[in-house]
Amino acid sequence: MKVKVRKDTGKPMSMEYEPMLNDIIIPVMGPSGVGKSTFINYLAGENVVRVGHDMQSCTTQPQPIVVSPPPSILFRDRRLVLVDTPGFDDTFAAESEILDRIASWLAHVYSADTKLGGLIYLHDISLPRMKGTSLRNLEVFKKLCGDRALRSVVLGTTKWTELESHSVGEQRLTELRDKYWLEMIERGSIVHNFDNTQQSAWDMVDSVLAYDVIIPVIGVTGVGKSQHEVVVGDDLQSCTDKVQPVIINPILVNSRKASYHGRRLIVVDTPGFDSTFGDDSTTLKEIVENLAAKYGPDIKIGGIIHLHDVNLRPHHDFHKYLDKICELFIEPRMLILGTTKWGGDGTRRAERERKLDSLTNHYWSKLIKDGAKICRFTGSQDSAWMMVEAILDDKNNLHRTEVLQIQEELVRAKKLVPDTEAGQHLRYSLDQLLKTLKSKEHSTDSPSIETLNPAQIAGIRAQIKALHIPFSQRVLRFFGVPAPKNK
User: Fold this and answer.
1) Vertex 74, ends 72 and 75: CA angle to 5°?
2) Could you tell me which residues come within 8 angstroms of residue 194 by beta carbon, excluding any fewer than 6 positions away?
3) Which of 50, 139, 251, 387 is 20 to 30 A off residue 97, Cα-Cα?
4) Residue 317's pLDDT is what?
5) Longest CA pairwise span in the chain (Å)
6) In this structure, is residue 176 part of a structural domain?
7) Phi and psi angles of residue 264, each rounded to the nearest 5 degrees, phi first
8) What GO MF annotations does this protein's record show (predicted)?
9) Is the pLDDT of residue 400 over 90?
10) How far is CA 404 from CA 258, 336, 418, in A?
């Protein structure tokens, strides 16, 4: 199979990749022969990586491939980079060496301040059961990610055409969901079937990048927050005394040409400050706790819409509570300062314009300088959507980024690969395999003693040794001396 190369250098395009700050990077991982390279080729619409047609791996190093995405607001001004990775059961390299290669590459992109968009983990559905190497592959992958990043993982099944019947695949998929993948699914991972089409490949990428766009609407009591949600596209009762998330109808979203690839748009009506139902500190605490309970403690707010009656001066603690709510969430990218109660009385129009100038030049000047936008809510659907679209159009708000546990361990904690969670787990798994072989107490998930010759057993012992941190390096770490960088 011919691989796409640059005409000027003759080198594969993946070899010339240098991470850029706005790259959307998605590693594609899984055992050797599962179809990682095939998946990337379908996604790209052409042969950009070599594909093996047997169980031998064609990928020995992480290979980043820059893929041209379809026109979309999601990818505006960004490159999509799929990373073909070797499996831990690679034909030509030990599992410890593969872990070191993948970990080093991930540390490199993290050091370049480039974060991942998510991960895709592929599994061959034609395999009748999960073998020992497949289980180790999966468990090391989980440790490499860490619990938090599992929310951005798509678990993909491949090779459905090699099954005797579709029902057999469904039974195996049920076992994967209920047993091997259960913990990952509970932490937010999504399951997809890859059917060897470009559309199914893109559906999986869309699922990796998909997350809820949550937009709280805050302000004093009676400013018109509930009316804003009604006009955007849903019915709410007024006099809100609790946090009310409203999932906007996808048909309305698409009609506004605000496509964001499967992400839900959730506009959150909140109790008003100066509320008759409680003091401001209680109101703020309730907003934060309710959103964290519904969407997780590391919730990402797409933006905040603050509504203000143009006829009134700002709330006396305006900066205090607005700064506080911004601090409590992960980097709200956009703040919309919306004015309400413009009315239809033309005689007071000039007076309201003067008050808006006062808000803009005095009370809100610092916020505007920091990037906040001014919008008017006039009671129309167009004016309500103008605020929402200003948040959706923010290119910094289009996708969630992830930092893997192993990246933090290697770069921030300065650990060596053997001392990471993934390294420790791989060492433990290999050690248990040796003990099983020695005792000849073989489980159904472990290779029998006849399948491993003395050279292979010696190789496992060598891997276990390689995954132990030398005493000299432990001493250096004890005295706070940074460990040598991975080669």
Assistant:
1) 75
2) 35, 39, 42, 122, 156, 157, 158, 160, 200, 201, 204
3) 50
4) 60
5) 94
6) yes
7) -85, 140
8) GTP binding
9) no
10) 30, 32, 16
Token code pair at residue 18: 């240098």
The pair of structure tokens assigned to 302 is 């797409």
Structural domain for 237, as ranges: 213-397
Which segments of 161-278 does DSSP mark as H helices, in order?
A: 166-175, 182-186, 198-209, 225-232, 250-255
pLDDT digits (tens, 9 = 90+) for 425-448: 999 999 988 888 777 655 555 444
In a domain, 471, yes or no: no
Instruction: Note whether residue 370 is domain-resident.
Output: yes
The string of pLDDT tens digits covering residues 240-282 is 567 777 777 654 555 544 444 445 678 888 877 664 444 656 7
Percent of the chain surpassing pLDDT 90: 28
Query: Alpha carbon 130 to chain centroid distance?
Result: 27
Helix (H), strand (E) at residue 81: strand 80-84
Neighbouring CB atoms inside 10 A of 428's CB total 14
For residues 116 and 98, is the Cβ–Cβ distance under 8 A?
A: no
Q: How is residue 166 written in tokens?
A: 């579709």
Name the least confident of 181-190, 381-390, 448-457: 448-457
pLDDT of amino acid 238: 45
Together in a domain, 190 and 238: no
Is the pLDDT assigned to residue 315 strictly greater than 70?
no
* Bridge partners of residue 301, in order along the sequence: 214
The DSSP line for 353-392 is: HHHHHHIIIIISHHHHHTT-EEEE--SSHHHHHHHHHHHH
Residue 7 scores a pLDDT above 90: no
pTM as predicted: 0.70
- pLDDT (0 to 100) of residue 270: 80
Mean pLDDT for the stretch of residues 405-432 = 92
Distance CA 444, CA 448 (A): 9
Q: Which helix (H) or strand (E) holds 471?
A: helix 471-478
What is the 3-state composition of the chain as percent helix, strand, coil, each rounded to the nearest 5? Answer: 45, 15, 40
Distance CA 199, CA 43 (A): 8
Q: Are residues 206 and 217 in the same domain?
A: no
Residue with tokens 């006099």: 239
Q: Which of 140, 291, 289 is nearest to 214 (CA)?
A: 291
Residue carrying structure tokens 């034909």: 91
CB atoms within 10 A of CB 8: 6
- Quick one: CA torsion of 389, 395, 397, 398, rounded to 10 degrees? 90
Task: Find the distance separating the first CA and the last CA of the chain, reported in whole Å.
Answer: 31
Q: For 179-193, b where at least 16 C-beta lie within 10 A, e where not — what string?
A: ebbeebbebebbbbe
Tell whether the model's pLDDT for residue 233 goes beyond 70. Answer: no
